[in-house]
Amino acid sequence: MQRLTLASRPHGSLTTEHFAIEEVASPTAADAALLLRPRFISVDPYMRTRMQAQGYGYIRRWEPGSVLSGYTAAEVVASRHPDWAAGDWAIGHLPMQELLAHDGNGLRHAPSGEPPLAWLHPLGMTGFTAWLGMSLLGQPRPQDCVLVSAAAGAVGSIAAQLAREAGARVIVSAGREDKRAWLRGLGFDTVLDHRAPDFGEHLQRVAPEGLTLDFENVGGRAFAAAIDAMRSGGRVIVCGLISQYQSPRPRQAPANLAWLGERGVAVIPFVAPDYGDRFEAFLRDMSPRVASGRIHWRLDMVQGGLEAIPSALIGLFEGDNLGKRVVAL
Ligand code: NDP
């Protein structure tokens, strides 16, 4: 059986050299109550942060040699657990390996039948992040002018739709034309390019009265442009700063950050694991919207199993993905 490990700690850009595939003995049904076969594994930007020597405080960092892990939809191959039967779908944060023995703790049941892919995106961690940042913390209202950066990605696409559902005017940005075309197809009429050198000028042109809410996914120059465009009394939801994740630490904040203080803009950072007690409320709120199709979601499915994970993850930092990137095993 194969598993994916961190071969060495990246100090700059992540490359496939930082990963290794190991061959180990397969677990058997006798090893634990459940034997699981991971079928779909989510790759996410935070994984890069887990690889560095100073990771986030809330999640254990990976050491060289660590087996990587991620949100996974796995099939139950064999069960001695009263709550699970062979053929069930289990969702959990699981090691990246072809087969695993598990005691069942921390796993969620997904509906049987079709692969439960929604549970890895709009009803999973990325949907939860969008809901927390936008609906719970951002609380958009009809009078708001909202910017969502990286809006053709996983979190951004859901966050932008939640702001629109709340009646706000929503400006979205994406770094590639096919991504912007997809966003226009979803009905967003102001779609900008946050990678363009004149992003700030475009922003000022489409929102001359300024932004009242910035849902920040990108950081760096794009964030600086959003800061310039903030209206007094607005708020910035700091969801992520992906453009900075491969830069050496300490990372540089935008040079105009102090303007937020001068303009009385509230800066609200958050990390989803701090809000675990809200997950059930999130599911109650989002499940009907996802089931009815009111919230659109798109997967960027990469085939190729464990070996495809390194490039799939690296690609997030190059903007390869359109929608939520998931690797099929
Ligand atoms: P996405 O699906 O949005 O993929 C990442 C996207 O970021 C890329 O497609 C690309 O979009 C953009 N990007 C990557 N590198 C750069 C760069 N150097 N400059 C500009 N844009 C870049 O990923 P997620 O939806 O999973 O994550 C979005 C953000 O949300 C990230 O910052 C992530 O860290 C954060 N996050 C925060 C959580 C929290 O708890 N606070 C939890 C989960 C995610 P494009 O081509 O359009 O530029």
Automatic annotation (TrEMBL):
Keywords of this entry: Oxidoreductase
Pfam families from the UniProt entry: ADH_N_2, ADH_zinc_N
Superkingdom, taxonomy of origin: Bacteria
Domain Enoyl reductase (ER): 12-327
Ranges that cross the membrane: none
Database matches in SUPFAM superfamilies: GroES-like, NAD(P)-binding Rossmann-fold domains
PANTHER family: PROSTAGLANDIN REDUCTASE, PROSTAGLANDIN REDUCTASE 1
Protein name from the UniProt record: Zinc-binding dehydrogenase
